[in-house]
Amino acid sequence: MGIAVAVLVLTLIAAVIGGPARDIAPLPWAVLALLAAGDLVLSMRRRMPLEHKLPPEVFVGEDVALELRLPDAPPGLGLRIAWPEGLTGPDDVDFTGDAARVTCRATRRGTWAFTELWLHWVSRLKLFEFVPKLRFEAEIRVVPNIRLVQSGQITTTVVSTLFGVKENRAIGEGSEFHQLRDFVSGMDVKTIDWKRSARKRALVAKELRAERNHHVILAIDNGYLMREEIAGLPKIDHAVTAALATAWAAAIGGDLVGHYSYDVQPRAFAKPEPGRTAFARLRSWTAELDYVSRETNHTLALTELNARTPKRSLIIIFTDFVDSNSAELLIENIGILAKRHLLIFVAIRDPEVEALVEQAPDHMDGVATLVAANQTISERRLVLERLSRLGVTIVDAKPGQVTSRLISAYLEIKARELI
């Protein structure tokens, strides 16, 4: 660019001076043309075989590395990728030598395909800038996050809580008969089976344990309110992560797990099955669960769920609401459901809204925002208190705490044998 400007200035000066200077005015342009031709020869790349390395699968909400390599890359090479809907990453990436490493984040479940990217570099003499478009065919599958399950953390927690601590505690807790054993000093006399002791002519005690094979239903609201993004992910993905973790905990706890989804009308329903089978089924189903923009009909959905679950069950409802007025039908139908079943209501708090009430406003718009945020939090608290008075267990937590709080609530219900 600088050379072209210099040639133009020289041409203008020659035109002003006139005479012999005007006759040699075309000479700088001829020199510039030769330089441009040489620059093109030195800088053009006929074939640019782009190599890439990308994992076939990644958990939603986690980062993944895309590695690119371009043999014989020109100096100063950069690129811009057309990111698919389910992935986010930097707009521009620079190559280091002939390789580049891009860290992107998975933000939507599904199978996402890359189609093209743009390279850009400046020619050797900086006369040209090349921006070719390359066809870039790569695919990655974004699946529900089961990192906690894979790490073994949930298994350790459930086993130690239900089968370690509980079975080492005093005999007599629980409601399901486990076995008979000789009565020894220190055991509760209430556990003595007097009829069997009389036949054996020695004291025999019943050992009881927590009842298993309870029905656990994971009811997931997939309406438009669950598409709201919190902490970089839609609420539905936070709900799916917590649901999968709870399904695994129920599998370890010996319960039967089913699932149910709904929006404007009931959608999928799977009857409770043994936990490990149900977990695999639930993981496959949630991987294909679409993001929809339909309003949720709680009356129809919860009435249908009540009809499909005649046996007393633990029903875990993942849903959302806007305010106390819009939640009236939700509260009414949960109240009907709570008469037969034990319910856990899972709500995901928005940290950004809570942060607004902690900041002092410095202008009138800030005051209005503060008032709106306070009203939202107050109405949310009012709805949750009404549900709690109906006997519903409330799990109201930030995205990063939902899973742990929900599993703790499940283990407490198991330990207290409330189902």
From TrEMBL:
Domain DUF58: 180-356
InterPro entries according to UniProt: DUF58 (IPR002881), vWFA_dom_sf (IPR036465)
Superkingdom, natural source: Bacteria
Pfam families in alphabetical order: DUF58 (PF01882)
Name of the protein: Putative conserved membrane protein
Organism: Candidatus Rhodobacter oscarellae
